[in-house]
Design brief:
The protein is mainly beta. The chain has one domain. 0% of the residues lie in helices and 67% in strands.
Length: 86
C-alpha cells in the first residue's frame, strides 16, 4: 500500500502586454513554482531481480519548476489576395 505525502505549493506568475511600433503586441511571461514535500520516493536497482525497488526517505525536499515565454501578435484588417497560383 502506498503512503500519502504532504506538500505545499508556492506559485509566482508575472506577465505583461506591451505595444511596439503601435501595432505589434508583445506579451512576455514568467512562471515559478516551488513545492515542498515531507518525503520523497527513491527507486533503487535490484540487480538480482533485475527490477527497481521503491524506498521512501523522510525529510524536507523542495522541487523548483519555472518557465518563461514571449508571444507576439497583431491584427490585420482588410482584404488581401495572395499572389499564389497566378
Amino acid at each position: 500500500m502506498e503512503q500519502q505525502s504532504k506538500g505545499w505549493d508556492h506559485v509566482f506568475r508575472l506577465s505583461s502586454t506591451q505595444k511596439l511600433f503601435g501595432w505589434l503586441n508583445v506579451s512576455p511571461s514568467f512562471n515559478y513554482q516551488q513545492t515542498w514535500f515531507d518525503r520523497r520516493k527513491i527507486r533503487v536497482l535490484n540487480p538480482k531481480a533485475n527490477t527497481f525497488d521503491t524506498q521512501f526517505e523522510s525529510g524536507l525536499f523542495i522541487r523548483h519548476l519555472y518557465d518563461a515565454s514571449v508571444s507576439m501578435g497583431t491584427k490585420v484588417y482588410g482584404v488581401f489576395y495572395p499572389p499564389f497560383g497566378t
